[in-house]
Amino acid sequence: MAAKNDYNAENIKVLEGLEAVQKRPSMYIGGTGKDGLHHLVYEVVDNSVDESLAGFCKNVLVIINKDGSLTVKDDGRGIPVDMHAQYKKPALEIALTKLHAGGKFEKSAYAISGGLHGVGISVVNALSSRLKAVVRRDGKIYQQEYSVGKPKYAMKVVGKAGKETGTEINFIPDPDIFSTVEFDFAVLRKRLQEIAFLNPVKITLEDKRNDKKEIFHYEGGLVDFVQHINKSKTVLHKPIYFKRQEDDTIVEVVVQYNDGYNESIFGFVNIINTTEGGTHVSGFKTALTRAVNDYIAKKGLLKGGKLSGDDTREGLTAIINIKMRDPQFEGQTKTKLGNSEMKGIVDSMAHLALTEFLEENPTIANKIAQKVVASAKAREAAKKARDLVRRKNVIGFGGLPGKLADCSSKKTDNTELYIVEGDSAGGSAKMGRDKEFQAILPMKGKTINVEKANPTKALSHEGITNLITAIGTGVRENFDISKLRYGRVVILSDADVDGQHITTLLLTFFYRYLPELIENGNLFIAVPPLYRIRKKKDYYVYNEEELKKTIEKVGKSEVTRFKGLSEMNPQQLWDTTLDPKKRILKKVKIEDAVLADEVFTMLMGDVVGPRRKFIEVNADIAEVDM
Length: 626
Ligand code: 0RA
Hints:
By secondary structure, the protein is α+β, with helices and mostly antiparallel strands. Helix content is about 35%, strand content about 20%. Helix 8 (about 280-300) packs parallel to helix 10 (about 340-360) and helix 12 (about 425-430) crosses helix 18. The longest helix has about 30 residues, at about 360-395. Bound molecules: 3-[3-(1H-pyrrolo[2,3-b]pyridin-5-yl)phenyl]propanoic acid (0RA).
């Protein structure tokens, strides 16, 4: 018999039917939009991955079918089909039609599960207009179909399975529940690749709508993952990898420095991407700071001085992957690990492993030492440069930059800072704004590309210092959200390629120096209109489609294309981009830190190959500005 036989039909704790899920789907899958829809897929895939972690499944196939359904097929042991003594129903039917309270029903069979993830396949069934389960076990093929969670017939044997085992779930999400029922290849691709990096399983994603197919299988696990993240960077050494286990907790870490200036640390807990960090990440940071400082002190490499945590993380890419029981998730998006014991566990494990590694690998250790000592020296120089610029910049009032037209309200909640491209548009914006709550900071020309400049240079750039001073929070290690001077920071640039370039440069700066501002939801991009249509009154439109529609509606009319913000007078600027009642603001979010880091490095960094490839692949979707 299988070793983990504590799961069988009798052991399932049955609590309630699926009505609760149908009544409040968001409680179980987070929402009923695009995210919730794809959550259904992860829910099924997670079960297959759990089966692979238990050592019984090697392949998972995910197929987006032409009929709008999705199939997840694995080669695990197959969901059990034996009869439940009390319910007189096969375990398969119970697994699919009853909600198993207290997280996963098979909790004792599987060490890990966390967050929303792991609520069970029955939730998927409840939210599917149709679902078909096929199980291959004991030489037979069993099958049952369901409609909005209810069996259409009793489980039946439909054929012989030979030696083959596994579970196959095919479902159509319920269009009465979801606002969209169209699966997105790119969304699934991203998450499935991440799962494959973190688990020893081969995942194939197939899209039958257009015959696309991708296979994710990484024998190297975390080492492959860090190389994938660093592929557009010049790395200093081969990845440093270690894995340690203590009771039920598995800590797996990979570290690789590159010649850049950015810090990229990614944390995962039970395969959940902890974008908000948490105790595992802070434990790792403490360990790294200590281990590197100890090494440098021992070798006498930084006389008298000590490295700050930031020094030891310049040019660092690290992934911390934790598997543990009962993770507590906190934070705005419930992606911050809260278990306090984890800080100490990761700290001591990582400190020991890193110290050992540095001792045993002097060549790599010296490269890292040189890198971090150089960054400590540069940081010291940057601080001096910053102090100098700050002094130059102080023109009377509270050290604010002279170019800033501040607002009169001091209430951070409803105040706004507009960063405006060009002095002339800045001038119009100063006149057109509502002085009470809107501040204007004009940005002359293109700001510096911080992806290519070291922190000393970046932080002594005048535009950047003005911006930092106006925002008030400080950057990186000095960042303090309580000092934020405006509730919204809005980038406003022209609707042309130059404007987009300026926006990208600013976004790069915010992402690298003030990511907390983005995470906190304070950063926005204003959308300027493309055309003005004049017919009795003025209409402003923001894209070609709107232009066509408006002309159709109002008849022949005078159409002007705005070339840049500077062509608008203060009133027009107010009407189109400043007035909270009419303007369009896009909120900047970091949905996927791994991807964001990759894209910024690729687009703004200095390795040309991947950028060329990106441009080739995306050329046909880019808008060309004439
Ligand atoms: C509980 C026990 C056993 C397998 C599974 C669950 C299982 C569930 C799913 C869902 C999708 N794929 C899956 N594969 C396996 C094994 C019981 C035994 O054979 O001893």
